[in-house]
Amino acid sequence: MGILPFVAELGLIDHHCHGVLRTDSTREEFESLLLEADAVSPLGGSFFDSAIGFAVRRWCAPLLDLPRHASAEAYLERRNSLHITEVSRTFLMASGIHTFLVDGGFQPERLLSGGELASLAGADSHEIVRLEHLAEELSAAASAAEFVHELRSRLRSPSVVGAKSVAAYRTGLVISGERPSEAEALRSMSSGPVKDPVMISWLVWEAMDAGLPLQFHVGYGDSDIDLHRCDPSLLTPFLRATAGLGVPVLLLHNYPFHRQAGYLAQVFPHVFCDLGLATHGLGHQASRVFAEALEIVPYGKFLFSSDAFGLPELYYLGALLFRQALSDFLADGLRRDAFLEEDAHRIARLMASENAARVYKL
Amino acid sequence: MGILPFVAELGLIDHHCHGVLRTDSTREEFESLLLEADAVSPLGGSFFDSAIGFAVRRWCAPLLDLPRHASAEAYLERRNSLHITEVSRTFLMASGIHTFLVDGGFQPERLLSGGELASLAGADSHEIVRLEHLAEELSAAASAAEFVHELRSRLRSPSVVGAKSVAAYRTGLVISGERPSEAEALRSMSSGPVKDPVMISWLVWEAMDAGLPLQFHVGYGDSDIDLHRCDPSLLTPFLRATAGLGVPVLLLHNYPFHRQAGYLAQVFPHVFCDLGLATHGLGHQASRVFAEALEIVPYGKFLFSSDAFGLPELYYLGALLFRQALSDFLADGLRRDAFLEEDAHRIARLMASENAARVYKL
Amino acid sequence: MGILPFVAELGLIDHHCHGVLRTDSTREEFESLLLEADAVSPLGGSFFDSAIGFAVRRWCAPLLDLPRHASAEAYLERRNSLHITEVSRTFLMASGIHTFLVDGGFQPERLLSGGELASLAGADSHEIVRLEHLAEELSAAASAAEFVHELRSRLRSPSVVGAKSVAAYRTGLVISGERPSEAEALRSMSSGPVKDPVMISWLVWEAMDAGLPLQFHVGYGDSDIDLHRCDPSLLTPFLRATAGLGVPVLLLHNYPFHRQAGYLAQVFPHVFCDLGLATHGLGHQASRVFAEALEIVPYGKFLFSSDAFGLPELYYLGALLFRQALSDFLADGLRRDAFLEEDAHRIARLMASENAARVYKL
Known about the structure:
Three copies of one chain form a homotrimer.
Chain A: H1 5-8, E1 12-17, H2 27-34, H3 51-60, H4 72-81, H5 84-95, E2 97-103, H6 114-121, E3 124-130, H7 131-141, H8 144-155, E4 160-165, H9 167-170, H10 182-187, H11 197-209, E5 214-218, H12 236-242, E6 249-253, H13 258-267, E7 271-273, H14 276-281, H15 286-293, H16 312-335, H17 341-360
Parallel strand pairs in A: 1-2, 2-3, 3-4, 4-5, 5-6, 6-7
């Protein structure tokens, strides 16, 4: 169950992540950032008793010079005895990620920016615009005409390589194939969180006009989500309507709809997918789900992302468990004589970075 | 593929089961109770040709002093040559279940009561009130005011440790987050089966008022179910509305939505889940699905139940296949060095009984 | 990972397939027929980099006297150097399929007929009437009364052994349990593709009147499908309404809803399922999904089909990967001591041909 050497050495493009926290974490904050729960529940016990919790103790402890499987208490004590910048640098460097595409639009005040993150990791970073966050920023500050002008301008900023929609959190993924007019969208404007389906639809079409690869949060997320409304196949009318534009659409995370996502990435020329957030959340079980995600998706259509947020451990675990799962997938294929070693190398490079470089034109 | 010794020896709390039949079974009845079908179909052949059918021949035959894999005919002949009480005692004792939480509200006339069951097994039992059944009983006998009074009183009976809703069978799991008023609920009263969503919603809120851990049948069941209406994520608005009450909600069975259930148990502080009915139905394939069910659920949130009904074999197979699957999960984790042996022991104890004892305050 | 000898030698009934192309294929056509995409996308790379693409190079190349894992270029060059009839005969003969049930109603002008296919393979063939195609043919040519008369006559043609509906592609699988009247159906008639739910519902009831086993496309298909509308559990009201008629209903493909299909085949006496199209699409990962499909379905309810269309390789890979997956399933069961060798032989025969022979009265 070691990692194949050529997989261990791959440089990664993380095509979807956030920043790391600027400060140390209490145990409560640390545990709640491991998972998608708002807080630890006395009814249910510590989140260290979970796949990701055990993965931290197993894989992260040694990077802080602790024995494998150090206790949660020992781990947090040691972590807090170090400067958070040192902790972050350690895990970021160990991830082997050389390029970060950063969605900086969620809780930016708590987190390092993309540039700071990249600098700490000795890596490159590019910006993913979070569409709903951008609209919320601009709606507070501008007239309708200025809103549209500024939004279009921001989508065309040279540092921006993609856009992201959190429609899943706001309205679910029922996005129509009909493009709303600017007038319709502006009528739906209001202050506060963008929750209007017309506005969200207009934003994603604006991103496509700008030629920006468009990411959708899909499936697994925090308790704001109604999971059955986040099935990616709900996007089918939108995908059908945009198939001819040549602008990539990227389905993020997808668990437990990763098979549906693979289907969409197979049948639509512009659709891609990943396992994102689920990879580190699955801990030692990541390999089985990863193999499921690859059942019917062409290998030129699957990408790596960590969806790490806040804790630097999550970049490291995201990358490590991606490598482990990819290695297990390829080793299994080689053992079954499903493809040649040179094919395995090519598949690995595609998923680690080449698909992302092609999609985002990096 | 043996069972780890510390798993084999665990005492179990079965947090959801029914009673055993009072009488012998014909082959027809036996086969139909193995699965969720109403009857064996001449089009499709014997239900002994199924995962559970083979599990009976493999695991139950030796307890009746037959060789492993005895034929269906030999098995039933031997079984019927013994007194049903003896057969029931044999399988119940062999299950290693020391506490049964019994839903006695389905076909009670055919079955031993919880007390009789426990007595036969040398175990303890507690009552789970089946809400729709209780309402049906009381609606026949009482005025509206008496109905409410008696219902509240029964929910507070000292022998009752939890409530169960079969909304899945009656309306599907679209239960709103808005609590209906007593007047609205009473307006929806009628004789016969409770199928009104307002009444069902009112009943589950009443159970929560009584502080009773609330079980929902989810997913896999008999042909009365429309499976797509039994996705547990349909409960999200209700779960969001009740997250702050501190009353546990338990999602039963869940197959094939066990990943959705694990998600809900992760993000909501009061939500728990099991694999229930599916465990024995899966036979020798139970371990893979069990591992799936544990992908993202915190280990303090997963329980054992057999959902056995009628046939004593189902308690035994439910417990045995749970042990096998738990053992396989832990052995796999240990082989991958995912956690320490002492962690494996703790996880096992949590799922076998400690989570249930905490949730139901046993 | 070899195939158990008694599985390798099984004769197969392919209960759902199409014809093979009459002509050679360009690389573009070949790649697009491997998967369900309309065309290869420059954004996503070659479809040879997929599970099915690697399966062609691994398993099909040797039958054309090339080394295993020959490159895509070498494979297509060699293939085009041979006569297409020779290529088709080679793969059809190697499949071990002795009886084909052929849906000839999709792009018949490009394909060999069922009779030609069977002749090439030294096998038998029978006709599956594609209901929507039949209605489209007849609606162009007839008055309403003639339409009904001719349709009923064609459904009773001696060569026809079953009917198939592509409701999944036209309306999704929400088919009501209420039978529409002939008058209602005829009011919904129009020229062009049959997309009216009343007409589709009437057609499937007509097929049942004729006593024809009724196939439904379910789940995974091309981009015309909205996948969430192809969940087979949406058919529940229709299945409940038809459970007493004694006419088999067959759920095809089902991926990623194969567990839902297994549930329906368990609880309804007349429902059967397969993994169809998904088997070859999954390539070296077919065995895991096949095992999932068999979790709760009685073994008398699961059939083999290739759903091959156009490329003769797909019959061969469909049959080969079915054998591999069935062998892996049985070998795993034998290793776990889940059933006896004689049981394994019986299960294999049921799924390979006996279930199909019983259902279609062959």
